[in-house]
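The step that takes the researchers longest sounds almost clerical: writing a folded protein down as plain text. Below is the pair of lines this work produces for a single protein:

——
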Amino acid sequence: MTDEELAARSAAGDGGAFRILVGRHVDRVYGYCTRVTGNRTDAEDLVQDVFLRVWRNGHRWDGERLPFEAWLMVLARRICIDYMRRKKPGSHVALVDEMFVDPEPGPHERAHERSIARKVQAALMTLPVSQRSAIVLRYYQGYSNEEAAAILEVTVYALESLLKRGRANLQRVLGDLEKWQ
C-alpha cells in the first residue's frame, strides 16, 4: 500500500495502517529532529509528538496539497520549531552523531571522524532554525530542493537562499575543515 492509502486508513482509525506508516517514516523523522535539536533524548520525545499528531489529526492531511511524507515532515518541522522556541538558548546537549562514521575504519580514524562530526553538529546548532532545517532536509535527508521547499513552506528560491546563507555561516564557524584532516 502507498503512504497515501495507509494515511487514509489510519485517519479512519486503522491502527495497523498507522503502525506501518510509523515503521516507514520513524527513522527519517528521528534523524531530522535529532539534527535540528542536537539532542537525541529530546528528538525521541518530539518524534512521539509528531506521530501522535498524525494519529489524532490524520484527517487534516490534504493529499491534493502535499504528499503524505511532505506533510509529515512539515509537522516535524513545526514541532521542532516550537521546541526550539521554548528551549533556553545554549542549553542543548552536544550530539555525538555516530551516523557520520564509517564502520570500517580503525579506532583512531573513527575517533577522528566522531570529533569532526561533533564539530559539524555544534556548528549546525549555531545556525538559525530555518537555515539548519534547510541544510538538514537537503543534505542529510536527501530531499530535492522542491521537496525541501514544500516541507519548509517556502519557495524554491527562498530555500536556495537559506541554503546559501547556511553554508556561508557554517563555513565561517568551521573555517577550513581540511586543517582537521
